[in-house]
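Dear colleagues,

I hope this message finds you well. In preparation for our joint manuscript, I am sending the HD domain-containing protein (Clostridium muellerianum) sequence together with its predicted structure, so that both groups work from identical material. I would be grateful if you could confirm receipt.
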Amino acid sequence: MKNDGIQGLPILYEAKIFLEEAGRLNPGPWINHSKYVAEAARLIAEETEGLNSETAYILGLLHDVGRREGVTDMHHIISGYNFLREKGFNEAARICITHPFLVKEIECYSGKWDCSESEIEFIKDYLRNIEFNEYDKLIQFCDAIAIPSGFCLVEKRMIDVALRYGINDLIIDKWKSTMEIKQYFESRIGKSIYTLLPGVIENTFAL
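The corresponding structure tokens are as follows:
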């Protein structure tokens, strides 16, 4: 049985089971982060004509599911992709690859390149041969406004990631792309995205 938004997704119950299982294998703050990404995606999709809010929620839950393999960096995107592909969920697998690449260049990745040469070539080729769709962009943006304690202003998350993983030559392009996605969805819904996210101000400023 598949979700009715796009093909190649588990149903919501299955997605929750996958995340719970991953959390048992590799507990950590990434679980709550994933849940907030999912909730942000659902809230924005509900206001965006043509998007399925349950599809968005499922993709948000599963974007980091590759962390089930343990503490890894870039490799979690390959692990998540392979895990979901093996179960027949190709569209869910796609989000594991696309979510960190706000610029379609592997060099924009923030963090350690702990993939094999063949895996790196696979990621490069994958990015080269797709065009980001609205769900890709939505999860990319929601990944940039969700921390384990809730929603935050995107600038806070940008700095948080830069401080933890360092910066690279494409960081400005990546930040520009993030802000362009924000503007895109705000133009689609006709208001600030932050009006949809409960607690965003309090969580950003620890009020």
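For the figure legend, we might mention the following. The beta strands are 146-147, 150-151. Residues 171-189 form the longest helix (19 residues).

With kind regards,
E.M.
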